[in-house]
Amino acid sequence: MAGARFSMRNKKNGSGLLWGVLAVLFVVFMFKWGMSWFINILAGPAGEKVTNINTGDDIVPPQIPSLFPLPEATNSATIRVEGYTEPNVEISIFRNDDLAMNDKSDDKGAFRVEFKLNEGANRIQVKARDERGNESQSVVKTVIYDKQALTVAIESPQDGTEIFGQNNQNIPVSGKVSKPEASVTVNGNFARVDSEGKYTVTIHLSQDDNDITVKATDKAGNTAERTVKVKLTF
């Protein structure tokens, strides 16, 4: 019985030693050849192959460029784009998928560039590229360059109108603006603008002469103004 136990113990020790050797060989294999193979297996056929994991090459793309808020529309022919990404990387600015200019982020990753806009919609995107050629790109922002003049008309009341009676102190003011998306104020009061650009609002008149001033502003910052004079007599 003692001999049998000794034989079984030797077999267990031998088996443990064998598994230990195999484990060491597996670790060496994975460290030297197998990690990139293992990652590629996990990535699948459509995944990007990792080929430089054992060489120490940088295969990580720069931090995705983050842009400061941009206006929805502007009447300026140039725009400033600011943001941040990885420090000291090449910055490429694209306008409607065309390269507008190149720059470089500073030691803190910040960048600031100015370039010209095309009239109409401008799709703006920033790409960052490091020395190894790794790239990342920002989300696309759209800015409309609108230099078209804005016009506003006052249809009622007419300039020089005289109104009689204290009961007529509140009168409607109506007219039309050339861009329906514009905001309109009448003597500082916001007026509702419909899809055709027509507006109307009621204002309160004072006795004697009154100036009625209509101001319109579109999303790009273009403005228009019109004033008529009316007289209220009690």
UniProtKB/TrEMBL annotation:
Q: Which InterPro entries does the UniProt record give?
A: Ig-like_fold (IPR013783)
Bilayer-spanning residue ranges: 16-39
The answer to keyword Membrane applying to this record is yes
Give the domain of life. Answer: Bacteria
Q: Which UniProt keywords apply?
A: Membrane, Transmembrane, Transmembrane helix
Q: What is this protein called?
A: Bacterial Ig domain-containing protein
Q: Which organism is it from?
A: Candidatus Collierbacteria bacterium RIFCSPHIGHO2_01_FULL_50_25
